[in-house]
Amino acid sequence: MNASKLDFLLRTQLPLIVFVIIASFVLTYFISRPERDGVGYTPDQPIQFSHLLHAGQMKIDCKYCHTTVDKTRFASVPSVSTCMNCHSIARKDRPQIIKLTEYYNNNIPLPWKRIHKVPEYAYFNHSVHVNKGIECSTCHGSVEQMEKVGQVNSFTMGSCLSCHREAHDRFPQLKDQINKGPEYCSACHR
Amino acid sequence: MSENFDNKSSINNPDPNYWRSFKELYNDRDLLEKKFNEFENGVTDDFDPNTNLSGLSRRKFLALLGASAAFAGVACSDYRDKGEIVAYNIKPEEVTIGKPNYYASTCTGCNSNCGILIKTREGRPIKVDGNPEHPINQGKICAKGQANILNLYNPERIKSPLRKNYNIFSETNWQYVDDNIINVLSNATDKEIAIISNKINSPTTLKLLDEFKTVYPTSKFYFYELFNDSVRNSAWNKCYGEGTFPLIKWDEAEVILALESDFLGVDENRIENVRLFTQMRDVDAKKFNRLYVAEAGLSLTGMNADYRLKIRPENQLEFVLGLLTELNKKGVIKSSFNFNVNLFEFVKKFNLDEKRIKYLLEDLSEKKGKSIIYAGESLSEEVHIAVNLLNELLGNTNLYRKDIRKENLSGISDITEFEGLVEKIKNNKVAAIIHLNCNPVYHLPEDIGYKEAITKVEDVFTLSETMNETCQFSKYVLPINHNFESWGDYKVRTGTISLSQPVIMPIYNTRQLEAILLTWLKKSSQAYSDNIYHDYLKLNWQDNIYPKFSQSLNFDKFWYSALHNGFITFQEDVKSNFAFKNDSIKFDNVSVSNNSFTLLLKESYSLGDGRFANNGWLQELPHPVSKITWDNYAAVSLNTAKQLGVKENDLIEVSIENRKLRIPVFIQPGNADNTIVIELGYGRENSGVIATGVGFNANKLLSKKSNYSPWIYTNVKVVKAPGKYILASTQEHHNFDIPREQDLHFKRDIVVEGTVTQYLSNPNFLKDEHHKEHESVYKPFEYTEVKWGMSIDLNKCLGCGDCVVACNVENNVPVVGKDQVLKSREMQWLRIDRYYSGSPDDPKVSTQPMLCQHCDLAPCENVCPVVATTHSPDGLNQMTYNRCVGTRYCSNNCPYKVRRFNFYNFRDHFRNGYQENPVFALLNNPEVTVRSRGVMEKCTFCIQRISEARSEAIREGRKVRGSDVKTACQEACPTNAIKFGDINNPNEEFYHYRNHQLGYYSLAELNIKPNVTYIAKLRNIRTEES
Is the pLDDT of residue B734 over 50? Predict the structure, then answer.
């Protein structure tokens, strides 16, 4: 190997290769970040329930189905019997409703795909946020405009904290009602 | 133990300061070295690959790791999958997801039958508390009741009926066993059907048994209890002709003399006893009782005595008669009896403290009618008669409760009836034996010959939750429902009947005991339905109990309100005036001098008579006095140990006639010489992985004919036996202080005590003596809102350990096992420290619950390299598990040694993953993270309860108040010694306790500003002594 070739390798090629590798790592890291956080995750559900139809067009209140959202830390997914409140009469002929009725009649619980999740060691409390006047859409996006629900925001500790730190900037209309959100560990972890 | 042990000078000049063991008292070299070293020997050892890990080589491990990673990579292609949310099909109306429901029920752990509230989350029981409205236990429940929930989920419960074939049990179905058993019972027309049970307190079950007898007329019932008050009641009968020993108004007794009685420790009525007793240890109302205890072994009651006398059980009669004679001489009582016992000769003979006897005599005469003398269940009938007489003469009978009496529904069969049963078996007159949830093979004295006899009966049927000694001799073993899966009613007192209701469907293929009997009674296996006993119970209530009430409610409403409350109360007349019959008084052999050994068999504090032996939480709960876990032992005094030539952990052989037992020695300060105390309930066989082989079966020493009482044996032979057996005690764990001899200028002030006299003359005496202002280099943080704090009243704390188990259940604390306790790795967040002071012959005892003090200037926080432990604005010392990397610096820097490290995943490590069984997932509190290996943990002040109170406050649109939160230990404490609340709010009750005149911080000179205040213990010793 002659000197000029080695020189070229060390001076140009090597830095270039190192730069490309690092750059691609960094780019992938940042570009894939929302993907890794689950943003955009829109799984198929066992029943193709449309929030657009129910919450958007028919304007059924979120709390009609997610009954415990202002009572406990869980919003709770409604039981099949809640659907049957209407669908024992309404739209009984649609294939999805027939499938739903089958679940109900055979007494099988519905295995919905989970979309939003914080880790088990974080104890997020729905009722605290809802009772303080924070809208569901703040975290879950405009669910009433989704035919099929997917994740809109990232559910990382960073996202929690950014809101907790600048609560008044994010919710100017709630300035009188809310303080800054707590930032100490045991507010969420125990 | 080193040679210093026998050092004369230190015996004569004992360390006046607190000591926890002999080793500490006599500056044992090993212990000094231990204290010098930061960690217990072995605690930081690397894991020994031969014992702790499988023999996997590094190469193989890497290969497996690579392969599993590859598999995982392929398998987890949908990396975004977050699992499923499985919603109910039809949600039960009463369930709100995330909110607990509480159901009133009754605990059947012992014969107290306390009212309980079972907390369930989404249909599964997760915690048990006392029912606050229940008239007997008033919201409190003991450690056994708390830990009972572990028995519900015990993966070793029998899961379906078993049939024995060539000594091997195989699973079968209910119809098969029912048909066979009904067949056997129906054919037993001329032979007896023996039905054996523990005492039954249920009126409906007894009615069912009556009906059983009409259907199967040859049935005969036998009831037994290993520990019972039959001697006390028979003495009562001899004195008064009828009735049973009354309940005592402990809250009105100003002087109590307890003779060999552990009424604060293991008595049946303990929860009520301690509540009433500590009402007279109230520093705010300035009410103080004085407790004299005369006993042989150091018991929990003796530990809390103001004056303690060491008297061997066989000398108790002479002591009581001596008191009688002396009081008669002084003219305090007028009695025609003359027993000719000279109390002061007795005192001299047994080397008792004459001063204390004088005080006792003076107190008894001053507080005539306001004192009580109470003899323990294990003492002989004569002592009980003498005590009844003395109470009668002193006018102490006004402290007998006249409105309520104990009920004894089934009663207890005499031991001779069991002898008769064995005789009948020998003569082939018994067709079948049915054991109703009892274990006579383990409990009955061996010389009755029951175990040998039942092998001769082919048809032995045992109804039991788990396998035990008796099951091994049975043809069929029928699994029964746990307490929490069962219906029932219980009557232990006049005027109250408690109800129990199932809170979960049977987890395994089990049936309720009464339902099984009902099926047999109807002579058809098809008669069974899930509701069979529920319907029977309801009908019995409708026919027999409901008519006692005013009929303004219809029966259904009455029934549901009774179920909701968990009990009913009603007016029931009781005979309360009994006339003392003088003709019963005759005493033989008053003066006993005994140079041989006396053996005392006691009920275990945590295991009862052994029925809680397969409960890990209870096995690991340190003994309240000796702090030993996972074993029983022979407690002897220091002198006796020397005389026998034994040291701690040496084995001795105890023999009475031909009955022998080898058991390790524990030198118990305060034990009477030549007396051996052994607790029963251990040494179980064939009873599951937790119970089997733990401790020693001292039931072997029981005999049908005792020379003193069923639990006390005199003329016992004791010799040293070869070998050693290491006991796991927590008493020297978490040491840190250098003995004060070396460092006198550091007054550590861990425990601070005073006397009642001091307090009454100057309520601020403690602050005057101990108060020092400390300066801090840190600028204090401003706590503007709620700041959490705890105060523990050491006058009320008796050191029972109920709080420890409550904390375990609430906070998912794992069981670690004896091998780990030996390495100081027990995980309990809350421990009860027990300190001795004074001489080992006659120690004073102090107890102190020790938990995370949530110091404002917490030393642990400064040293955490990853900021896993920090301080919250409401004054909590937080522990963030997912941040912790396990350096253990915090534990090293904690002056109270309250941090616990997960050296293993103990759930996996203990008994081969016993606690990893999926069924335990149901037991865990869903609001508390289950910690894994390598993580530090500690008391959180029940942060999950604080968070729940906060969100509840936000729901109601207000600020959280200190009184909104009750910690698990506070809820459990039977004497209400623990208070919790807001330090900053002067309007709350807690503020008073936080700023109490007697309040002090443990190790206050460290100036780390703990948020736990202790209220100093006051000893009610006589004015001339203080």
Answer: no
- Contact across the interface for B84 and A111, Cβ inside 8 Å: yes
pLDDT exceeds cutoff 70 at B6: no
Structure-token match 């069912």, residue found? B208
Q: Write out chain B residues lying below 8 Å of A103, CB-based.
A: 89
- Answer yes or no: CATH 3.30.70.20 is held by domain B753-771+786-1025: yes
Report the residue of B86, B89, B924 to disrupt the A interface, i.e. the one with the largest count of A CBs within 10 Å: B89
A176 interfacial to chain B (CB closer than 8 Å)? no
Contacts of A80 (CB under 8 A, 6+ apart): A100, A103, A104, A109, A110, B87, B88, B89, B90
For residue B97, give how far its alpha carbon lies from the nearest alpha carbon of chain A (Å).
7
> pTM of the prediction?
0.89
A113 to chain B, any CB pair closer than 8 A? The answer is yes
Res B1011 pLDDT > 90: yes
Q: What is the mean pLDDT of residues B11-29?
A: 66
> A9-64 pLDDT, tens per residue?
888 899 999 999 999 999 998 888 888 888 889 999 999 999 999 999 999 999 99
Report d(CA A47, CA A83) in Å as an integer. Answer: 11
Q: 3-state SS of B716-743?
A: EEEEEEEEECCCEECCCCCCCCCCCCCC
Q: What CATH architecture is B597-729?
A: Beta Barrel (2.40)
Q: From edge to edge, which strands make up the β-sheet containing B488-493?
A: B488-493, B496-500, B567-569
Asked if B80 lies within 8 A of A103 by C-beta distance, the reply is no
pLDDT digits (tens, 9 = 90+) for B739-760: 444 333 334 678 888 899 989 9
DSSP H helices, B106-224, are 143-153, 174-187, 203-215
Question: How many contacts (CB atoms, under 8 Å) link A and B?
Answer: 127
Structure tokens that stand for B373 in this block: 């003398």
The Cα–Cα gap between B938 and B829 comes to 5
DSSP B850: E
Residues of chain B with CATH 2.40.40.20: 597-729
ipTM score of the complex? Answer: 0.89
Beta partners for residue B290, in sequence order: B255
Sole residue written with tokens 């997960």 = B902
User: A108, B936 in Cβ contact below 8 A?
Assistant: no
Opening angle at CA B372, ends B367 and B378, nearest 5 = 155
Distances in Å between the alpha carbon of B334 and those of B322, B373, B398, B590? 15, 18, 18, 21
For domain B248-399, give the fold: Dimethylsulfoxide Reductase; domain 2 (3.40.228)
Q: Where are the domains of chain A?
A: 38-77+112-187
- Print pLDDT tens along chain A (190 aa): 577 888 888 888 999 999 999 999 999 988 888 888 888 899 999 999 999 999 999 999 999 999 999 999 999 999 999 999 999 998 889 999 999 999 999 999 999 999 999 988 999 999 999 998 899 999 999 999 999 999 999 999 999 999 999 989 888 888 888 888 899 999 999 8
- A 78-97 → B contacts, CB under 8 A: 78-82
Mean pLDDT calculated for residue range B50-75: 74
